[in-house]
Prior knowledge:
There is one protein chain. This protein has helices at 3-26, 32-56, 64-69, 74-77, 103-108, 155-166, 171-174, and strands at 101-102, 124-125, 135-136, 147-148. A two-stranded antiparallel sheet has the order 1-4. Strands 2-3 form a two-stranded antiparallel sheet. The longest helix is centred in the N-terminal third of the chain and has 25 residues, at 32-56. The protein is mainly alpha-helical. GO terms for molecular function: 4 iron, 4 sulfur cluster binding; electron transfer activity; metal ion binding.
Amino acid sequence: MSLSDETRRRFxxxxxxxxxxxxxxxLGGDGEQAxxxxxATETTTEAEEEGDEHEEELPEGVSEEEFxxxxxxxxxxxxxxxxNERRNPDELFTKEATQFQEATxxxxxxxxxxxxxxxxxxxxxxxKNGDGFGACARVEGYIDPEDWCSLWESIEEAEAEQEExxxxxxxxxxxxxx
Length: 178
């Protein structure tokens, strides 16, 4: 599968996820929407409080803005992910666009399955400089291995797709064509 096919597949996945989330928010009724809004506000407040704690954990000399959107240290800029996918700093998604959050929060929200996190994602680039954070081949900024986003893909799945592409088995590409 070519890089453009992979990028297109990722985009379609994100667009579909965003549509589902948007529709889910629009379908509330019987006064439940106000209750949901209140809960979302409370959750945001808790997340902001946790964000304050998270600021204390930032790598030395890294601002909150750099932590969220980069740039990342040089050793990550074009590094290979755990599934040998090269990071292209010019073709990265924002954390916001990928529903980026702590893996435990994603599981609680029903977005991820238990055990799915950046640390075991095919796109993850593990810590190379000892600060406890890595990077991602598809998402900008610093990445904690305990985070999660909608691009999560198992390493085994990614390796199987790569092998399929190397074998010339173009049959796998057909399932992504719309």
